[in-house]
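FAQ: What does the model actually see?

It sees only this:
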Amino acid sequence: LKQRGLIDNDLDVMRFLQHELDTDYRFQSLLKTQKSDIVQRLAKRASGLFVYARVALDFIATDAPDNTMEKRLEILLSLSSGRTGKHGPFLSPLDTLYLTVLETEFSPDTLQSNPSRLDHVKTGLGSMIVLRRSGLFPADIEKLIGTPPGERTISWVLPRLRAVMVIDEKHQKEAFRPMHESYPDCLVDPT
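And it is asked to produce this:
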């Protein structure tokens, strides 16, 4: 067996990105307004990691009234290869992407102005980490953790994490799970 090199992985990621951008209707308007180098720029950031490419595409495609696809693409393309400062001495590009998803979906300004939302995010992320293999539905977890009737904790947090989680948002008939095991690992990594 010949071991595939990094260059082959990069090309495979480029092919994947190109295929997804060409075939997913959600990206058609983005492709009309953006430069043709999106694929190359995202593939370079992915560094051969399909999980990076998948999370990046899902993040870009997430519907949010305050963050258009163009804005989300701009956020991703402006990321440095690793972060310094408040998130530690150095993070991998994938961990940087994961934290960018969190910071975009749960802006610090919004959470500081609404402490109950901050509690929901902490509870939601903690539950996701601890119970990710439980097979429980979001509504079951809300009952388990004592969420008051009519209040949404897990079901408020999870839809905002669809770039990094696999969930059935409309019917909540499936248990949720991380899109990749590296996501909960990133959340509990002390660096």
